[in-house]
What we know:
The chain is an all-beta fold. It contains no helices and 27 strands.
Amino acid sequence: MSAGAVVTVPATATGAATNQVAARAASQATILVSEPIAGGGMIGGEAPVDGDGSQARFSGIYQLVADRTGNLFASDRNGIRQIAPTGAVTTLRSTPAAAFDGLALDAAGNFYGAGVYDDTIYRRTPDGVVKSWFTGWNGGVRPQASVRLAADGAGNVYLADYFGKRILKFSAAGVRSVLAGGGAGDGNDGVGAQAAFHGPTALAFDATGALLVNDSDAVRRVLPDGTVKTVARIPKRIIPPDSPIAVDAAGNAYVAGDSDLRLVKPDGSVTVLQMMGGLPYTTALAIGGDGRLYAGTGWSAPVRLWKISQ
Length: 310
């Protein structure tokens, strides 16, 4: 396959022992370009440094969110970094006392954060005040992995609980409930607690108000009433267990492979998107205010923010 080729496989395709699958006709060869916007330096990250473009430094981007004016915000080892459309990076907060690995931004400009070994959700108000917002989301047991968050237009916050295999909802008033998951089985569709997840790692809203969840080896759709339906399944060996997710205005979901991306359309078809020159290990994805896809990379490469385009 040539670099940049796009191959689409129906969600229901199955393969025999020869690894042959019934695939749709490939689209015309397409090359996706990943343009570095900010960051660089040492492999695996370094101490945060504000600056323009490649002069900025990140420790480790775990989640990206966007506002409507074109700014991106990255959780950077418990800090919040703002990336302007020009690539200028500034630190909004860096105090390690409150974990901001998982990151969400509501319509009022409040940031919500949660992290590993801490079952408190924190809120940062637009004036910069950081306080505990919900304490004990995991029943007082410290989570053993970082979690990712999402916020809806009504100020509710949602959390992908990997080890609990569930999606938690926190109302604007701070009331916790289980939206879906925790049921018997492994990846079963259903409603509320009857549904089962393999291990949700990330979540993002589509334009209809449904949550699309990266469930380790699948993309699942969760409706506001807790109904869970599998959109597509992707082999675990292709999608890392901590892979992020982003959803565009058309309802297309993007999940990260080891060196490429997978586009999951609402009809369940899965398209392989290959980057020109490859893409380093992707830790964060978001759709910016301009409708473009952005990726945060790191671990085995310098920590950078990229703009993805054709």
